[in-house]
Amino acid sequence: MTIYRLFDQPVFPDPEESDPDGLLAIGGDLSPRRLVTAYSLGIFPWYAEGSPILWWTPDPRLALIPSELHVPKSLRRVLNSGTFRLTLDTAFARVIRACAQTKRPNQEGTWIVPDMVLAYEKLHSLGIAHSAEVWRDGELVGGLYGVALGGAFFGESMFHAEPNASKALFVTLVRWLQSRGCELIDCQQTTAHMLRFGARELPRKAFLERLRKALRSDALTAPWGLETGI
Fold it and tell me: How far apart (Å, rounded) are the C-alpha atoms in residues 180 and 65?
């Protein structure tokens, strides 16, 4: 299986040409133009510090259709308690850095390396990358960030500093995205956590078909803004 090397032009090979693990290409840069091109093709960067940039397109692909969101009974009480406050795009820099510092099971270090942080902060300044924050008593206790194109949202990472904070945040954000007309949420890697919320694995071909349809919408292109109790 050929792994393609990228150069100056922000172009990618056919996602169907990736290796069995989903690795498609190596190299290139993290410019806004290349990142937008990648996401629109169902490709995302993921690599460790000291490694060249690696570009992935897994098969199958974990995704959540917003209308299929499942809310566990144990979380409904939290959502109705008014314990947390949710905001959008008020602390992007803090959220992405907290995600980078969060230790993950079976993971050494972080893939959110300094160059990734700078690249996504640039996307945020362009209105393409967004954050959702959850607060308690004025303290940031959870958050997530991702990329929005058309009617699709590509979740990148989340963190929590308090039990249930990120879960309540995720459910509230999905409901808000659905209200805005979002058709597809990309979860990238399969995890039991996301499966519990109704995400399911899609064959790459089916995922890309849904993505192409979602990109024909402009549902998520308007400025984001929300503050609500959860």
Answer: 13
Closest CA to 147 of 30, 69, 16, 9: 30
Looking at the fold, whether 127 and 176 belong to one and the same domain comes out as yes
Are residues 116 and 214 located together in one domain of the fold? Answer: yes
Of 197, 204, 208, the residue nearest 173 (C-alpha): 197
Q: Same domain, yes or no, for 129 and 214?
A: yes
Q: Are strands 54-56 and 152-160 parallel, antiparallel or unpaired?
A: unpaired
Total number of domains constituting the chain: 2
User: What whole-number distance in Å separates Cα of residue 14 and Cα of residue 208?
Assistant: 11
Same domain, 49 and 106: no
Of 45, 39, 38, 47, the C-alpha closest to 11 is 38
113 with 204, same domain: the answer is: yes
Low-confidence ranges of the chain (pLDDT < 50): none
The reply to whether 83 and 177 lie within a common domain is yes
* Residue among 42, 15, 55, 70 nearest 207 (CA): 42
Average pLDDT, the chain: 94
Tell me the residue range of the domain where 13 lies. 4-59
The model's pLDDT over 40-97, given as tens digits with 9 standing for 90+, comes to 999 999 999 999 999 999 999 999 999 999 998 889 888 888 889 999 999 999 999 9
Q: How many angstroms separate the CA atoms of 38 and 57, rounded?
A: 10
